[in-house]
Amino acid sequence: MGDPVVFTVMFVALYAAHAVADHWVQTHHQACGKGAATWRGRLLCARHVASLTFTQTVAVAAAVWVTGVSVSPAAAAAGLAVNAVSHYWADRWSTLAWLARILGKGEFHRLGDGGSAPTGTGAYALDQSWHVGWLFVAALIGCIGGAA
Questions:
Q1: Residue 148 lies inside a defined structural domain of this protein
Q2: What is the pTM of this model?
Q3: Number of domains in the chain
Q4: Spatial separation of the C-alpha atoms in residues 27 and 116, rounded to whole Å
Q5: 23 CB burial (10 A radius; 0-12, 13-18, 19+)
Q6: Which domain range does residue 132 map to?
Q7: Which Pfam families did the record assign (predicted)?
């Protein structure tokens, strides 16, 4: 069983670090090129996900240290790995556009002008909600075997 306090600490740290890493740490070059269907696009996305995961690891470590909760390093690493894979998948070319279409959210995904206001679009809202959902999963995995 997972510990609810560890879950809370993990989720808050992952969520805060995600917001920072996706908007402040990610370079403009990565943001613009990570979706390209080329090896360069794959590399840019991998670099973005590596910096995101590093930022989240630091945040989780700091939160664990300050709060004093006991976290299983293996569970925390597994949660971070699941989040990294889900983030990479979502940030590659048109994977979320495809998912939105098959789930009947294609019109919402196309909402707004991505060139003028990319953060005010349906695509951005679906992207961020996808990531937050996986942060929840990562925190669930990360709290297994913690505290007690």
A1: no
A2: 0.89
A3: 1
A4: 18
A5: exposed
A6: 4-142
A7: DUF3307
